[in-house]
Amino acid sequence: MLKKNNEKITLGVIIGNRDFFPDRLVGECRSDLLEAFAKTGIKPIMLEESATKLGGVETYQEAQKCAALFRTFADEIMGILVVLPNFGDEKGVADTIKLAGLDVPVLVQAYPDDLNKLDVARRRDAWCGKISVCNNFYQYGIKFSLTTKHVVHPSDPGFLKDLSDFAATCRVVRGLKKVRIGAVGARPGAFNTVRYSEKILQRNGISVVTVDLSQILGHANKLSLADKTVVERMEKIKSYAPSGRTPHEKLVQIAKLDVALNSFMDEYALDATAIQCWTSLQQNYGCNVCTSMSIMSENMLPSACEVDVTGTLSMYAMQLASGSPSALVDWNNNYANDDEKCVLFHCGNWAKSFLPDIEISTAPILGTTIGEENTYGALAGRTPASPLTYGRISTDDPKGIIKAYIGEGALTDDELNTFGTRAVAKIPNLQRLMQFVCRNGFEHHVVMNASNTAGILKEALGNYMGWDVYHHNSAPDPLTVGNFN
Questions:
Q1: What are the sequence ranges of the domains in the chain?
Q2: pLDDT for res 477
Q3: N or C, which end of the chain has less CB nearby within 10 Å?
Q4: Other residues' Cβ atoms within 10 Å of the Cβ of residue 438
Q5: What's phi and psi for 445, nearest 5 deg?
Q6: Which InterPro entries does the UniProt entry name for this protein (predicted)?
Q7: Is the pTM above the cut of 0.70?
Q8: What is the dihedral sign for C-alpha 457, 42, 387, 419?
Q9: pLDDT in tens, 243-296
Q10: Are 402 and 396 in contact (CB under 8 A)?
Q11: Cα–Cα nearest to 14, from 172, 77, 139, 463
């Protein structure tokens, strides 16, 4: 079972109203919404019924009241839900969002009319009103999301899924705008592929904190089993994964390194790390850092190897979308003659959630050049069948942009006789995807997550972050941001 991030989502709620439609529709709407929020675990911030006419928003004065309420909870509100039980007042809704100044995702919902109740007493016209509200958002420069169906009742299962997906989108956007990533060590000299632009990332709210690898190793070398923190980490490592044939002294080394890395993360309040693991760490310290990276990723603090900063950013984004850990992998091998399958592989730093047969081991490939005895700490394990969302975020320095690709497939139980952390993926139109990856200058690293969250990521990264996003195998979409589709 994958570990879940159960962070509660708080949404500001605007119930639109129009004076020549029945007021009772607004009151009924509030009751419908509370049921939907209870089912999806969302906390609403909305006007009391006594604050305006049944808590709806129509006039500029009511917009001011609602905006003031939202500003009071600005640190808590992650998104705004606009609900139209009738046509609604397009200016009142747009003014509320502008006056609140929250810069968060917005979802627009509108109620369906009952074909047998199109009289004056029950008529809604929300189908039409939604178009007017969205037109005003476009004029005001307000980014927004739409429900799958143009009009949908809050009790409809489709709306409940839309609401849950929107909450995940809010989580991704909020997380990416304040994420702090630690870059531990220099990029390995042979890995031009993981170059990235700190400046482009910073313009998007993504901070990178650098530290020389020697500082981390120096801290680790000063520690011993006499230190309580080392003993505690040893116990955590032993309970995390079977140690196999790993010598005791190597476990001590791994624990000391883990203490040093966690100290660095705590000092700078980091959300994720990218670590120089190839090959300075093995040559100058004598073990792999994979076990520590796996533990961090399992605990929702993703860690990528080879100082792949945008790789760990991709891990973090997928983690926010799904609420479960991600793993950085290589697009590594063909799978026999199957054009829609490939092997995903890495020396061994994947989160425990992906590895039911996890064991602390060595890195045989790396061991051929620097001695296998210097590679203890790599993990071994096979990922079983599960859903798959894959993708990659990258800075494109010549264009001065952030770009990404995402898609969905499946991890399979097909036979795979090799070492390290490994999986078999089945991806529709895989050959076309590989052509896209190669032609557009993406890295050989990709991120996997055991979920179906590509749509959420597309909305968050493309619509709200404004990045160029390619959604593999999605239907042609004229609303896609960027040049890929």
A1: 9-176, 180-471
A2: 57
A3: N
A4: 11
A5: -85, 140
A6: Fuc_isomerase_C, Fucose_isomerase_N/cen_sf
A7: yes
A8: positive
A9: 999 999 999 999 999 999 999 999 999 999 999 988 999 999 999 999 999 999
A10: yes
A11: 77
